[in-house]
Structures are given as C-alpha cells and as structure tokens.
Design brief:
The complex is a heterodimer of chains A (493) and B (128).
Chain A lengths: L16 H11 L3 E6 L4 E4 L1 H7 L3 H4 L4 H5 L6 H17 L3 E8 L5 E13 L2 E11 L1 H24 L2 E7 L4 E4 L3 H5 L3 H4 L13 H15 L1 E9 L5 E12 L5 E10 L1 H45 L7 H26 L7 E3 L1 H12 L9 E6 L7 E3 L1 H17 L5 E10 L3 E8 L6 H4 L17 H11 L3 E7 L3 E9 L2
Parallel strand pairs in A: 12-14
Antiparallel strand pairs in A: 1-2, 1-5, 3-4, 4-5, 6-7, 6-10, 8-9, 9-10, 11-13, 14-15, 15-17, 16-17
Helix pairs in contact in A: 10-11, 12-13, 13-15
Chain B lengths: L3 E5 L3 H12 L4 E5 L2 H10 L4 E5 L7 H11 L5 E5 L5 H9 L4 E4 L4 H20 L1
Parallel strand pairs in B: 1-2, 1-3, 3-4, 4-5
Classes of the chains: A alpha+beta (493), B alpha/beta (128).
Chain lengths: 493, 128
C-alpha cells in the first residue's frame, strides 16, 4: 500500500492483475477508500483526493470521519455516517447511504456511498467505501422537477380560460383548451352549434350583436359578462373577443377567450359584505340620533298633553306629534332602501337618456336655489350599459340636487357624459359650489354622514350602493369654495 | 322665575319642545340654532344656564362648549344628545367642562328632574 500506481503506458503481457486493479481503482471516476476497522484511512484514490482537496499522504492513517467532517457544525452528519459505518461493520453487511460533503472548492457535493465490510475468516478487517458523486444528477433532477412544477402551474391556470372560435354564421368551429372543463360540453356535442347556446337565452341576441358590433368597430371586445354552462350554471367571465382572419387577412370568424372570474367575484362580494357591516356600526349611531330627536319631541309633547300643561294648545301639540311620526316613517323607509339587498331590473340603457329623464324631476324640489345654470355636454354615440333605469335615475337625481344645494348663491352645473377607454360610460357632474372639506371626503359615502343641517345623510350612500351593484365606480374631487366633481363610471355591456 | 335658560339646538321642533317643557317648570328660555348665534346672545344677555345640543351642524356642540367655557368660566353648560350615553362624547364633554349631560332618549320627567338637579348643583358650587 501507499505505492504509486504504474503509469498507464506499458506492455500488457508484463503486468499482473494486482496492478490492473490498482490502476482501475486509482483512476476510477468514483471515490474509493479503504478504512481499517478503526475507521482510519489506509488508502484513497485520485477522485477522493480531488474532491476533499487533500493528498493521500496527508490523510493516510487519519480517522476518515474526522477528515471528512472537520467542523463542529457537521456533528450530526458525522454521527449519521458513523452509525451507518458501524452498522456495516457490526453486522458484516454492505450498506448504501446518501450524504453530503463539502468539497475543497467550498461546494456541497451529494455523494451516494456504498460501504462494504472486508472480512478475513469472518473477522472484520476494514471497510471499502465507494462513493458516486451524484451532485449533478440531483441538480438535474431538481431542475426537471422545477420545470415540471411550473408546467403544472401553467396548465392549471390555462384551465381558468376557455378558447373557442365561431364562424361568420355564429357556429362554433373550434372548442379548444379549457372549454370542456368550463362549459361541460364535449367537443362533438358543441361543434357547429350556434354560440348562443353559451349565453343566457333571453339576452343572447342582444349580447352577441353588441359584442360583434364592437369587434367590427374597434377590432376587439372586452368585458365582464355571464355565460351559461351545459348544466345551466351561470359563470361570470371576463370575455375577450378578437377577429379571426385567414392567411389573406379576410375575416372568417371570431376568437373568444373567456376567463372564469368566479373566485374574484366571490372575493369582491365578501369585501362588499364586510364593508356593509362596517357601515352598519356607523348606521346605528346615525339612526339612533335621527330617531331619538323626533321621539324626544313626540314624548315631550305627549307628556304635556297627559299633564294637561299645554303651552301651545291641543291642535298645535297634536300637529307637532304628527309631523314627527311622519318624519320617523320616512326615515325608516330610507333606511330600508339603504339596507335592502335590492335586486336590479337590468336592461340595456343609454345614460344620456336616463339623465334627461332625471332633470325635470329636480324641479319638483322647490327648496333649491334659483339662478343655477345647467350645461349638458353629452357623448353622441354613447354605447349602452346594462342597468336598472329607475335606480340609476335616482342616482343622478340625487347627485344633481346635491350639486344645487352646494350652491346657495347660484352657479353652474356641468353634466358631461363620455366614452371612457371604450369600456365605461362616464358621467361627470361638476358644480361651482362650496366644495367639501378634505377631512369630510373619506366619509362622504358613509350612511348618515351629512354636512348639511337638514337631510338624513343617506342620499350619497344609497347612490354609492346603486353604482357598486352595477359594477361601476363613483369618485369625487373637491376644492373648498371652488366646487366638486363627481365621476361615475359604468361598464358597457 | 326659577332660571333663565339659553337653548341651542339646530332642530326647531327640539328647541321649541325644550322651551315649552321648561316653561312649565317656571323657567324662561331663549332659543337659537347655532353656536355662533349662542355666542352673540351671551354677549348681550345674562343667562343662568345653557342647554347645548352636542351634534350641532356648523360648529359642533363640543367646539361651542369649549368657546363658552373660555369666555364665560362660571356659566353652567348642560349637554343634550340624541346619541344616547356615548362614553366618548361624555368623556370629551366633561373634559371641556360641561356640568352635566342628558340624553334625549331618557323619559321626559327624568330629563326635567335631571336637568334641574344639575343646574342646582352647579349654582351651589358657583356660589360657594
């Protein structure tokens, strides 16, 4: 032992088998070590030297485990290796074991060890360790696993989408990935069926003609709508529709991509409900105040009637009670309107027309300041939205009355409607009134929040709820003594 | 006449009721709708006590209370509220120096007796 192995170039007839084996071991691509029964190193090959960075002569006679695991941090790894080694020697059987070692280059190598006890007349003489460096294989396996995982992610996210194509007659010609899963139809049963099968039967015609008209005009349609599955289930989707052109650029049909947004909708609903709960706290406090005042007046007047200590006379006392009872009744109705989960009666509506209908109603309110000028700037080609005409009319009536009330000395109200990015009908109501203090802006849509001496503070919160239930948004900008701009956006069908 | 009272509430029905109820208790009242009007009246006339609504539009009741305590240190101010017994509002009113607190949700007889008791105690304290 300890001899240098012969150089590889020699006469094959002149060498003996021991030299051949020695050469094989020395030049093997695996780590080979021979340990005595005290686990001290008797010999190791070139591969071992190169990986642990120490020469055979430097480590010969040293304890293998102490050479391999120098640091205290590696105690556990050393103990594990020792346990396997001891096991192999005690029970005189070969063991396989996978472990790490830190190479001389500071890189962690993953080694698969085979430990064979060497026996002489059934007495343990030592052990032969053969280690395969499987670091690269492991890394490759890991990267394959990573690719595999990301592929699975991609595939599962594709399942949220359905891609299908119709021809110019509206017949489904391609029913691609995700479609069977989303709609429940198999390809054979739906190919060459009319696309209206995927839409609500009552709305299919208007929905589809609107979609196709918008694609014709703008080359693209994108909106949130509801589609119907084979089992009749309604699924909310974000639908994108593009033109489908052949190689010569000729229109041959339309490509539909539907993304299932059920989860998003659920979350939105939960957020909406929790906001409603938060509003309830505010609501109760406001309600208490609004009801206590008239109740206080009623019970006070009744007390005077009971004790026959009338200050104003019986008719006047009873009139006062009557007024307050009416006040509570009206308030309760307003609260009901606010709290009720109103069902919308949706139809395709033009916002310009809704505003035109709301404007004459403003005049019924006799308390409004005079010399207010209304300027209308309406988008002529306003696409329709899906909305409840009565409820939307209430919103605009409310907003316009608010604008009036913010200008006790008169001013100008501008009502501007426009097409916002081909996705929303936008209405802006701009006044030149008192404006809203910054501190009050965040509370403006809270129930019972009012900066006016009169009124219940429910108007704007009802407007807010109506717009929200139409999937729209309502925002405002305000400057004290310069005026307020309310911006309402409602999605096109 | 027992007391001369300044009633401040932004609802005409409420302040008229308080005026009438207190008239039956041999008190004479002057009513107004805002803190600004109240401060103007106080600068012209002397009152035994102010009955002040906590939720006034415009300058809120608590702000008005603060102004009154700064200008008329010995004038008793009783707060009245429709919010019920809101700990936060009671705490703030006391901090700003009101001498008592009545809720519009209390029975009428109790409102009157509580009010009279608060004013009596405040007067005794003021004179001692």
């Amino acid at each position: 032992m300890g001899v240098r192995f012969p150089s590889p170039a020699y006469d094959i007839m002149s060498i003996d088998m021991k030299d051949i084996f020695s050469s094989l071991i020395e030049n093997a691509a695996v780590l080979v070590l021979y340990l005595d029964k005290k686990e001290n190193i008797v010999l190791c090959n070139k591969k071992t030297e190169s990986i642990i960075g120490l020469k055979n002569s430097e480590i010969k006679g040293k304890n293998w485990l102490k050479v391999l695991f120098k640091d205290k941090d590696n105690t556990i790894k050393r103990e594990m290796f020792k346990a396997v080694l001891d096991d192999a020697l005690t029970y005189k059987r070969a063991k396989d074991f996978e472990g790490h070692l830190l190479s001389s280059h500071g890189k962690l190598r993953h080694i698969s060890w085979n430990i064979t006890p060497i026996l002489n007349k059934n007495e343990v003489q030592g052990s032969l360790l053969v280690g395969h460096d499987i670091t690269e294989i492991q890394e490759r396996e890991n990267s394959i696993k990573n690719i595999d995982d990301s592929l699975k992610n991609i595939i599962s996210s594709i399942n949220e989408y359905a891609l299908y194509v119709i021809n110019l007659d509206g017949l489904i010609t391609y029913f691609g990935m995700g479609c069977e899963m989303m709609f429940g139809y198999s390809k054979p049963e739906i190919i060459f069926k009319h696309i209206s099968i995927l839409h609500n039967i009552n709305r299919a015609d208007s929905q589809l003609s609107l979609i196709l008209e918008r694609v014709r005009l703008l080359n693209k349609y994108e909106s949130e709508i509801e589609l119907i599955t084979k089992s009749g289930e309604v699924i909310p989707v974000r639908l994108t529709v593009n033109r489908f052109l052949d190689a010569n650029g000729k229109l041959t049909g339309y490509i539909f991509i539907a993304k299932d947004i059920t989860q998003t909708k659920k979350l939105e609903y939960q957020v909406f409900q929790s906001e409603k709960l938060a509003a309830l706290g505010q609501l109760s406090a406001g309600m208490a105040h609004e009801i206590h005042n008239p109740l206080f007046v009623i019970s006070g007047r009744l007390e005077m009637l009971k004790q026959e200590k009338l200050v104003l006379g019986i008719k006047k006392e009873i009139d006062l009670i009557d007024t307050q009872v009416n006040r509570i009744r009206k308030l309760v109705n307003r609260i009901l309107k606010f709290a009720r989960k109103t069902t919308l009666t949706l139809e395709a509506v033009n916002l310009n027309e809704i505003i035109e209908l709301a404007l004459p109603l403003v005049n019924y309110n006799k308390l409004l300041p005079a010399n207010v000028e209304i300027k209308k700037i309406f988008e002529k080609n306003m696409p329709k939205i899906s909305g409840d005409p009565d409820q939307l009319q209430e919103v605009f009536l409310n907003m316009i009355i608010n604008a009036y009330q913010s200008m006790p000395n008169g001013g100008i109200i501008e009502i501007i409607t426009s097409n916002f990015q081909n996705r929303y009908a936008q209405v802006q109501i701009i006044d030149t009134g008192e404006g809203i203090a910054e501190a009050n802006l965040k509370n403006i849509f809270m129930p019972f929040f009012s900066t006016k001496g009169h009124g219940t503070g429910l108007g704007l919160s009802i407007c807010h709820n109506i717009i929200k239930s139409h999937n729209g948004s309502i925002e405002l900008e305000s400057r004290i003594n310069q005026g307020t701009t309310f911006t309402i956006k409602l999605p096109f069908i | 006449m027992l007391y001369k009272i300044l009633i401040v509430d932004d609802e005409i029905e409420v302040r008229d009721l308080l005026r009438d109820l207190l008239k039956n208790e041999d008190c004479q009242s002057v009513t107004c709708a805002s803190g600004e009007e109240a401060m103007a009246l106080l600068s012209k006339e002397a009152f035994d006590v102010v009955l002040l609504d906590i939720k006034l539009s415009g300058t809120g009741g608590l702000e008005v209370l603060k102004d009154m305590r700064e200008k008329y240190n010995n004038l008793p101010v009783v707060m009245i509220t429709g919010f019920g017994f809101d700990e936060e509002l009671i705490g703030k009113s006391k901090q700003f120096g009101c001498c008592g607190y009545i809720g519009k949700n209390m029975p009428i007889a109790e409102i009157i007796s509580t009010f009279k008791q608060i004013v009596k105690e405040a007067k005794q304290k003021g004179s001692s």
